[in-house]
Design brief:
two-stranded antiparallel ribbon, 4 strands, 23% helix
């Protein structure tokens, strides 16, 4: 599988991200177990408008990588989620949704929902 050239993107393709209730629960668990210093640093970063609230601009990567939503896991590898820096990596066909989205990170769910 081709890898994506994510470093240097500054999260411009990361958000707003649709989430399911199961993903939301997993993210809340991740945030609650995160050391306070790391959580506050992540929370207080000034991101580009629309960028996912969990994108770590300082480290140029996802701040909740292990708990990231399925959309993020598929991004760049599925034809409907193409990375503009490596469109050739998007070779997989979309899969049918198995669970309804409950909202979007950065729009419907912000840091106030994870305190």
């Amino acid at each position: 599988m081709n890898s994506l050239p994510c470093h240097g993107c500054k999260g411009l393709c990361c958000g707003p991200v649709p989430v399911t209730s199961k993903e939301l629960k997993r993210i809340k668990t991740k945030i609650k177990t995160m050391p306070a210093k790391i959580r506050l640093n992540l929370q207080n970063q000034k991101r580009y408008y629309g960028t996912c609230i969990f994108y770590d601009l300082e480290k140029d990567r996802c701040g909740i990588h292990a708990a990231r939503p399925d959309t993020c896991r598929k991004f760049g590898y599925y034809k409907h989620l193409v990375c503009f820096r490596n469109p050739a990596a998007a070779t997989k066909e979309p899969e049918p949704l198995t669970e309804e989205f409950v909202g979007m990170l950065s729009v419907d769910f912000t840091w106030k929902d994870f305190r």
